[in-house]
Predict the structure of Tyrosinase copper-binding domain-containing protein.
Amino acid sequence: EPFPVPDLSSCKTPPTDLPNGATLDNGGTCCPPFTSGTSPVDFEFPSSLPMRTRQAAHLVDDKFKAKYDAALTAMKGLDEDDPRRFSQQASVHCAWCNGAYLVGSDSMDYQVHQSWLFLPFHRWYLYFYERILGHLIGDETFALPFWNWDTEVGMSIPPIYTDTSLAMYDTNRDACHQPPVIINLTDPTSCDNGSVKSNYANIYTHVVSGATTASLFHGADYRYGSGEVPDNSRSGQLELSPHNLVHVWVGSSSNTNRENMGTLYSSGRDPLFYSHHANVDRMWSIWNDKLGRSNYKDTDLTNSKFVFYDEKKQLVQVNAGDCYDMSKLRYQYQEVDTPWLSGGR
Ligand code: C2O
């Protein structure tokens, strides 16, 4: 069966699956603000919106940087109980990742990692987050930049994220992984600089050679009512690496769980999360469009429901499978080189 919309009034505080030493924002909960009696409306495709182009974060100009900073500053400054507020958006990740939604008679954890739910959930999450940012600065063309970690010049934390005067900055990142140090997918907790070649080889394996089927790439099935418990054996190749490893590499080694980016409940607190995920999402589009590989069609996945607040604070329900076509969501990725597609040779 597909997962139904979770009942927000039974969202668990604290969530059932927090790591030791976790501290939650928003008064100790990661549940979104909710007025009882509210039911979600169905998502409508934004067919009249202009196409938004997500650019590589290391290539954006000063004008974009100022715009992004203004949007994020506005988002951080919204009222505490506004579901669009940055801290609330960050909590969305915790709610869906740390066991706040237990659904059905067997109380299955509606967990959006470690299975085929991973890519569609995160595409939808970014979609709403991006639309809120655009709305706050009155710019429908606003698009999140992607962290282009799959090319040599993009392998360090992008400059717009390390400028301490901007809203994109976060202090909770590993001190020895600051630019010009590049991502180390071989050993993400070490201070050693990564190798461009091995990073390319890693990406090639997890997106191309080792990800020939939907189940290898997206992850295995996870069905409502099956009573299953999520674990890494279901994760898709892209999720396992580079996705997980980049998270760990960014998170701060001086925090118990490598907060913010290094653990699920807190990773949405670092603005870099959304650019990291934009690149994960871009990898999906390359796998699907460029490599011509096919997404899952199983309706237990495509009809599974997620719920988000939109830019107007409306609660909206979406079908996992309705995000497959990015052009219907009115966004695309800037074309850049993909040196790893050849295996890094
Ligand atoms: Cu929901 Cu990068 O994880």
Observations:
- The two ends are 44 Å apart (CA to CA).
- The chain has a mean pLDDT of 97.
- Residues 93, 97, 113, 122, 243, 247, 267, 277 surround CU-O-CU linkage (CB under 6 Å).
- The beta strands are 41-42, 52-54, 102-103, 108-109, 305-309, 315-319, 331-333.
